[in-house]
Write a sequence for this structure.
């Protein structure tokens, strides 16, 4: 049973890895596609151009992967920042409790009662459109989910005897946080990280689609779909295929995140077998 | 050796309407080196709270804790760390008493290294681990295992090893065997008694199993709703209980009479 | 309290964002750059945007307390009226989408749990995983292309009343169902492993009785929480969909106003929206309070 | 046919992550009407699985062999639907761990009423009245107050007694109680025992009480069966279990009780996944001989009502 799950996870992980490698080397693999060719404008999908070409004669497949690279990179960085902030805030809030915790809960309520999209737009207005402000907007919300998870996790294990036990054998607060709490919490955070990258890739695409995020001439999936929409009657491949690529990556990230979560759950419950 | 005077813990709850709950109310006792004091009482009577306060994992609301003639009820920092070394605790539930992500070895080493008992990574450290394992009756291979790979009894042994490594003056055992089977319970209790004879620590033993108390305790303190009900030598308390509550408790435990007494509605938290 | 804080934050954010509303609005009216400075100043005087942050906010707040959200800089109509006219579209979109997601999510989740690890379950899980990962705006465009352009069974633009709401609410509903399928399935399976189910079996209840009388109530709580968070994300989250389908909803109008810095509209809308969010959260909390005695106990203990 | 419940060569196995678990192997047990039998064993010896096996409440991966006759009817041959009519009505089952065994979102009273109306066609009000009476008979002071509470609002002992009340509703001729006193302290345990006694008196039923506590078994049972590693190793009237223990395991168990001086029984029970060859206890047995490591002993009756599984008594 356990082995079967491990095997599944390995396969999924391998697929994701291949996809990621393709993206990492997309510059080398597809670099020549992101060039304007006036002679092959708006061609239908064919063997040479599997996803067709756009009105400027650029290969849609190449651009989709190059765009994916940007999205993934941005998503990864954004989530890394979110995770760092979120885990620290969440752990501290739950471990020390008191005013710190109350403050956190208040902040959380405030942020959660903004319709998230609207606040995002406000931030984008403040900082102007572009990659940087989009990242800020993503982080503004992203850290909260990590913080909430970390907080609930820490609250759950804070009263476990092993924390008291560690205190009783003379470990300091800092030692306890880094030796016992963070390692225990991080195991639930990592699957979430994977899931959230998928999530933020979608978010980036969405914002770029509305024209707030990545700006042309960068290749980005959301942008490509937006541009493709103008040709909705004539060249449907312009928006269908980039979205498809995005979906594939996002599915894989979700699936791997899920499997990771399942696996860690099993490990948790593998204590003394109950009869 | 360790003395407690008027130890009190009051929990306040409620935001608008403050309610006070006296978990422990002016409890006093003294345990001498090599002796065992047992605290008995129903769940929720405050015995676990006494344990946590005595080990300074919980701050007392008032009262004094005196170790070797020194008031330690409000020490902090370095002094507190030193105090922790002297006063050790074994918890009731072996299931989460050790960090599930850490090997037994590292859990034990955590204690040893915190106090720099032997140089880190030295051959002495290895020898000490080996000694400890022998002392508590575990195999050397258990050191490399994770807590969830061990049975409840084995975890308690590992915890005892970690506690003994610090050579404490006082050992607080909060129902160390209530989750274990009879045969394992006998193993653990015998081990504790043997170690007490060898190391001469004072022991505060919490239990609701009166037979266990009778077998290990020199003195008994009966608690009910945070208050001391009766205190005395084990045999005298068991033979001729003075307080009504103690008599009830004894009767109920030995199934002598039908006990009909309504508890409070809400489960009192431990 | 929270709503106040939200509105102030939004106000401050807007205030410090680059671009002067007077200038932007005049640009839109006259249709190009090259405005004279004094004209802009005069216009700013009329709008009242030349004061500092705090006086402006105070003005707005005082009016708001009299239930006057002010007038749009752009159209000159009261913000409340602007909101009302667009509310119906957005609200019916949200209601239809939620109903649909609930229908799909809960029923598929139940069936999936019933046929655990069988083909149906596996298919459903794959579908919901894919569903969760597909960007909804892409789904919207593809469905628009497919149903409106190719098959011609749905209207293209959003001015045909109810008919034009069908496709967008389907898209939103399907997108929202993914999480519900998952949570329904997991909750049922978790509950089936609970000890109390053994008691119910030992009592002699049949499988369907166990499900109807006990498990259903136990799983309703997480589902309600999830639906609430879905609805909240629909408020404002439907902006993209409204944009694509050209629906005259709140989100669409809000984007336009943000671009033009139409303060009263943005503030009013954000205020009403966060108020809605707060109220929805409150309702959801009250429902779980009513449904789950465990939560009640926690509240008492605090 | 003089026994109400008769188990013949019952074995239960299931698959776990770590392998094939032989939780119960070859159990023979006959219980006469009105007789209370205690099934005593330590954690992981398969005693709870045996209790669940009787009413087929085991997890779906479990496989059961052998025959379980209840009043002459074969329970293992019954369909799920037929079995539903046995559960609660004919055989009540009190699940272990009362804090998780009641539906958390339903009022305690409604759960009892639900049980009553399953077995009797009476109105809700009449059932509620009856539920009140049952609670009253278990010496709850304020039955109405209890009935309007949710399980979380009750203490562990009260939940356990509510479980007893629920089992009483069908006035069954047989009941199985799984670890009814686990985790309760002295005073509360006394109340639960009291409740169980009233239940037995009220229903005039026979019963199988599963526990790890020899002293508790002595207080309530007529006969005690000792279980070790999936099989019954000794069965005798309760007084004889204490005065004349035959099996080395039982001997060790009694000697290790605190009141008997905490004499240590070394070692830990063998795993149910790979059972040792020969006698399952031989690794811990101080009388172990060569023969014990090779041949698996059978139950032998040394007296009409005292059986033991040990080759010392051949």
């Amino acid at each position: 049973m356990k082995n079967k799950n491990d095997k599944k996870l390995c396969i999924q992980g391998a697929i994701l890895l291949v996809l990621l490698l393709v993206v990492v080397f997309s510059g080398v693999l597809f670099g020549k596609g992101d060039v304007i060719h006036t002679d092959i404008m708006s061609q239908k999908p064919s063997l040479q151009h599997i996803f067709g070409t756009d009105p400027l004669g650029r290969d849609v497949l190449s651009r989709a992967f190059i765009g994916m690279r940007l999205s993934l990179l941005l998503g990864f960085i954004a989530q890394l920042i979110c995770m760092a902030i979120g885990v620290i805030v969440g752990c501290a809030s739950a471990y020390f409790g008191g005013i710190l915790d109350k403050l956190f809960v208040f902040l959380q309520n405030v942020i959660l009662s903004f319709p998230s999209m609207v606040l995002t737009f406000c931030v984008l207005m403040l900082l102007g459109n572009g990659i940087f402000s989009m990242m800020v907007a993503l982080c503004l919300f992203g850290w909260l989910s990590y913080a909430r998870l970390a907080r609930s996790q820490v609250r759950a294990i804070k009263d476990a005897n092993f924390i008291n036990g560690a205190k009783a054998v003379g470990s300091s607060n800092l030692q306890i946080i880094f030796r016992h709490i963070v390692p225990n919490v991080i195991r639930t955070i990592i699957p979430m990280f994977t899931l959230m990258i998928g999530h933020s890739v979608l978010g980036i695409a969405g914002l770029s689609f509305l024209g707030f995020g990545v700006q042309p001439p960068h290749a980005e999936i959301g942008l490509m779909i937006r541009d493709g929409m103008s040709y909705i009657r004539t060249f449907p491949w312009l928006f269908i295929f980039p979205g498809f690529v995005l979906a594939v990556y996002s599915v894989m990230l979700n699936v791997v995140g899920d499997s990771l979560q399942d696996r860690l759950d099993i490990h948790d419950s593998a204590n003394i077998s109950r009869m | 050796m360790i003395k407690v005077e008027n130890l009190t813990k009051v929990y306040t709850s409620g935001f608008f309407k403050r309610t006070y709950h006296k978990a422990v109310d002016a409890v006093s006792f003294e345990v001498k080196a090599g002796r065992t004091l047992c605290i008995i009482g129903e769940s929720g009577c405050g015995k676990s709270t006494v344990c946590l306060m005595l080990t300074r994992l919980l701050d007392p609301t008032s009262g004094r804790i005196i170790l070797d003639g020194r008031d330690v009820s409000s020490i902090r920092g370095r002094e507190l760390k030193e105090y922790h070394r002297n006063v050790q605790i074994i918890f009731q539930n072996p299931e989460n008493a050790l960090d599930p992500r850490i090997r037994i070895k590292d859990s034990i080493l955590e204690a040893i290294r915190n106090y720099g008992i032997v140089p880190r990574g030295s051959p002495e450290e290895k020898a000490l681990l080996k000694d400890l394992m022998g002392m508590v009756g575990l195999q050397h291979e258990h050191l490399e295992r994770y807590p969830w790979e061990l049975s409840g009894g084995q975890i308690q042994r590992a915890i005892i090893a970690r506690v003994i490594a610090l050579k404490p003056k006082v050992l607080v055992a909060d129902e160390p065997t209530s989750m274990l089977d009879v045969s394992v319970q006998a193993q653990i209790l015998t081990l504790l008694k043997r170690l007490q004879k060898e190391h001469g620590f004072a022991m505060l033993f919490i239990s609701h199993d009166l037979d266990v108390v009778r077998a290990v305790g020199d003195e008994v303190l009966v608690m009910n709703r945070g208050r001391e009900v009766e205190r005395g030598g084990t045999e005298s308390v068991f033979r001729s209980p003075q307080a009504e509550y103690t008599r009830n408790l004894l009767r109920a435990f030995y199934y002598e009479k039908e006990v009909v007494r309504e508890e409070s509605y809400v489960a009192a938290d431990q | 309290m929270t709503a106040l804080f939200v509105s102030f934050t939004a106000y401050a954010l807007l205030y410090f964002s680059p671009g002067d509303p007077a200038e932007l609005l005049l640009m839109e009216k006259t249709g190009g750059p090259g405005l004279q400075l004094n004209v802009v100043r005069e216009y700013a005087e009329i709008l009242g945007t030349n004061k500092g942050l705090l006086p402006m906010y105070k003005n707005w707040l005082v009016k708001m307390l009299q239930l006057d959200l002010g007038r749009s800089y752009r159209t000159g109509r009261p913000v409340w009226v602007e909101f009302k006219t667009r509310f119906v579209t957005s609200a019916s979109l949200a209601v239809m989408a939620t109903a649909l997601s609930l229908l799909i999510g809960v029923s598929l989740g139940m069936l999936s749990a019933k046929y655990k690890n069988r083909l149906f379950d596996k298919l459903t899980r794959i579908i919901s995983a894919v569903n969760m990962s597909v960007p909804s705006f892409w789904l919207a465009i593809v469905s628009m292309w497919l149903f409106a352009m190719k098959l011609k069974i749905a209207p293209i633009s959003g001015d045909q009343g109810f008919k034009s709401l069908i496709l967008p609410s389907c898209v939103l509903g399907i997108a929202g169902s993914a999480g519900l399928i998952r949570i329904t399935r997991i909750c049922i399976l978790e509950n089936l492993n609970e000890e109390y189910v053994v008691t119910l079996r030992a009592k002699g209840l049949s499988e369907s009785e166990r499900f109807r009388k006990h498990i259903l109530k136990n799983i309703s709580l997480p589902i309600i929480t999830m639906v609430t968070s879905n609805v909240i994300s629909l408020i404002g989250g439907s902006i993209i969909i409204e944009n694509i389908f050209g629906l005259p909803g709140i989100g669409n109008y809000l984007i336009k106003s943000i671009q033009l810095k139409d303060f009263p509209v943005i503030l009013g809308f954000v205020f009403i929206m966060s108020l809605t969010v707060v109220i929805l959260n409150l309702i959801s909390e009250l429902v779980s309070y009513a449904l789950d005695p465990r939560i009640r106990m926690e509240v008492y203990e605090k | 046919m003089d026994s109400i419940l008769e188990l013949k060569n019952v074995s239960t196995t299931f698959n776990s992550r770590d392998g094939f678990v032989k939780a119960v192997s070859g159990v023979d047990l006959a219980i006469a009407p009105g007789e209370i039998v205690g099934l005593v064993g330590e954690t992981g010896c398969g005693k709870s699985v045996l209790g669940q096996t009787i009413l087929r409440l085991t997890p779906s991966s479990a496989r059961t062999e052998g025959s379980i006759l209840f009043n002459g009817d074969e329970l293992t041959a019954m369909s799920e639907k037929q079995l539903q009519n046995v559960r609660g009505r004919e055989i009540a089952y009190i699940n272990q761990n009362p804090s998780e065994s009641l539906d958390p979102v339903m009022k305690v009273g409604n759960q009892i009423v639900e049980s009553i109306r399953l077995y009797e066609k009476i109105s809700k009000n009449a059932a509620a009245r009856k539920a009140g009476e049952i609670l009253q008979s278990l010496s709850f002071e304020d039955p109405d107050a209890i009935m309007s509470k949710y399980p979380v609002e009750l203490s562990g002992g009260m939940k356990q007694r509510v479980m007893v009340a629920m089992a009483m509703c069908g006035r069954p001729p047989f009941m199985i109680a799984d670890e009814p006193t686990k985790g309760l302290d002295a005073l509360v345990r006394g109340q639960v025992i009291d409740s169980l006694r009233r239940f037995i008196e009220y229903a005039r039923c026979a019963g199988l009480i599963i526990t790890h506590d020899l002293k508790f078994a002595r207080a309530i049972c007529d006969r005690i069966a000792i279980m070790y590693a999936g099989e019954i190793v000794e069965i005798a009237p309760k007084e004889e279990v204490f005065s004349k223990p035959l099996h080395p395991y039982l001997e060790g168990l009694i000697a290790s009780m605190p009141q008997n001086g905490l004499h240590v029984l070394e070692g830990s029970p063998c795993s149910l996944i790979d059972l040792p060859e020969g006698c399952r206890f031989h690794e811990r047995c101080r009388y172990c001989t060569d023969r014990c490591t090779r041949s698996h002993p059978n139950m032998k009756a040394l007296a009409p009502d005292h059986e033991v599984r040990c080759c010392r008594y051949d």
In short: Confidence is low (pLDDT under 50) at residues 257-270 of chain B. Chain B has one domain: 2-102+168-269. The radius of gyration of chain B is 19 Å.
